[in-house]
Structure formats: structure tokens, C-alpha cells
Amino acid sequence: MLNWAVRYFPIVRVLKRHVRNEDRILEIGSGSFGLARFYPGPVVGCDLIFPSLPQSNLLPVRCTGTQLPFVDSCFQAVVVSDVLEHVPPDERLGVIREALRVSCKLAVFGFPYGKRAHVLDEHFLEFHRRIAVPPPRWLEEHMLFPFPEEELFRGLNDGWKVEAFGNEHLGFHDWVNRREISRVWSLFFCGCLRIAPSVVEALLRLADRPPFYRMIFVVTRTSNQGK
After folding, report:
1. Average pLDDT of the residues in 81-109
2. DSSP strand pairing (58-62 vs 43-47)
3. 159/100: higher pLDDT
4. Phi and psi at residue 176, in whole multiples of 5°?
5. What would the CATH number be for the domain defined by 2-221?
6. SS3 annotation, the chain
7. For residue range 33-66, what is the model confidence (pLDDT) as tens digits?
8. What is the domain partition of the chain in residue ranges?
């Protein structure tokens, strides 16, 4: 849960600067919780499967990120968090284009970035093998493709502005991953988030320093071009 918080809190801060709680928000690859666990307003979440009962403020829609069943510009903001690294490289641009197609204002993309992050996850996978604990599915999928990089956003038309910032120190990410294997630590993190989320958020901001595990790209519409 703390790993979710460290990547979603910065995204929520971006959303609060650009949209209102009642605006239409879409998350691509939400699963059953995703952004809705941390965002106070309603969220439409699309994914291939929803393995458990969705969060109460999440409206689930089954679909792929490359073929969204929504009309153009129907959401004020679209979020794609820790999804692109699971998508084959030749399909990643299609996910980005679909997210921008259905957004009238803003799209936020976060993902593990570059070779150093990939090597860190390789070591984490080896750690699971050494302690004889089955690795989570997301970690195994991280081994399938190189992590995305900023080149993905260089081909956007002039109707979009791209900004980026780093998220989560590599060492902190590794520390949290190893703690969350333990049920005791996981329950502790969940309890802290439930009791004092604002305090946890403030502390997690201290972990947003280089070298970063993740980059977050904020893409805002600057004109009607490309709609």
C-alpha cells in the first residue's frame, strides 16, 4: 500500500491544481483501487480485469488502453500510472494517444524510468528467489520489456505541453518493496495511511529525490489542435 501511496500522492497533487473533484477523471489500468483509493472524487477506471470489489468511488469499465470506448475529449483528466512498462514498446504510443484523445485538459503518465530502475527490479526479483517467496506478477512483467523513457513524448503535436518530474528515490523504493513482503509491515503501512494520511504524504515527499525510480510526465492541452 505504501508503494501505491508514493506514486499516487504526487499525481493527486497535480490533479488538484488542474481539475475539480467533481470533474470527470479516467484512470487507464486502474485495477480495483488505483487512483480512487487516494482521490476524493469519482474515477472511471478501465482495465482488463477487476480481481476484487472495486473501490466505492471507482466506476469499472473493461477495455484495453489502446481502444478506449469513450468519445473524444470527454474527460477533464486521464491518469496512466505504472502501466506503460507493462505494455509492449510498439504499443506504448498507442496508449498515450488514446489517453490524449479522450482528455480535454490533462493527462498524467507515471512509470519506472530507465535502466537503473530496471536493474533495481531485477535485483528485487532475485531477492524473492533467494528467500523462496513467489514474486508478484507485476514484478515478473517488469522483466519482459525495457522501461519507457521520455522519447515517447517527443512526437506529440503542438497542441500539447509536456513537463516531467522525478518520483521516489531508488533506495527508498527498494526498502519499501522489501518491507511490504512482510504482512506485519504491510499492515503497519496501511494503518499509518488510514490514521494520518497527510503526515504520510508529507514524509513521502522527502523520498522524491534523485536518483529516481519513477518519472511522472504531465501533458496539458495548450490549444484545440489535435482534438
Report:
1. 96
2. parallel
3. 100
4. -65, -45
5. 3.40.50.150
6. CHHHHHHHHHHHHHHHHHCCCCCCEEEECCCCCHHHHCCCCCEEEEECCCCCCCCCCEEEEECECCECCCCCCCEEEEEEECCHHHCCHHHHHHHHHHHHHHEEEEEEEEEECHHHHHHHHHHHHHHHHHCCCCCCHHHHHHCCCCCCCHHHHCCCCCCEEEEEEEEEEHHHHHHHHHHHCCHHHHHHHHHHHHHCHHHHHHHHHCCCCCCEEEEEEEEEECCCCCC
7. 999 999 999 999 999 999 999 999 999 999 999 9
8. 2-221
Residue with the three cell numbers 497533487: 13
Q: pTM of the prediction?
A: 0.93
Please, what is the Cα angle at 198 between 194 and 204, to 5 degrees? Answer: 100
Section 95-108 average pLDDT = 96
Please, is 47 exposed, middle or buried when counting C-beta atoms within 10 Å of its C-beta (0-12, 13-18, 19+)? buried
The whole-angstrom separation of Cα 144 and Cα 38 is 29
List the beta bridge partners of residue 218.
108, 163
Predicted confidence (pLDDT) per residue in 166-215, tens digit: 999 999 999 999 999 999 999 999 999 999 999 999 999 999 999 999 99
pLDDT tens for each residue of 13-39 = 999 999 998 899 999 999 999 999 999
Q: Which of 138, 78, 143 is nearest to 105 (CA)?
A: 78
Residue 173's Cβ-side half-sphere holds a number of Cα atoms within 13 Å equal to: 26
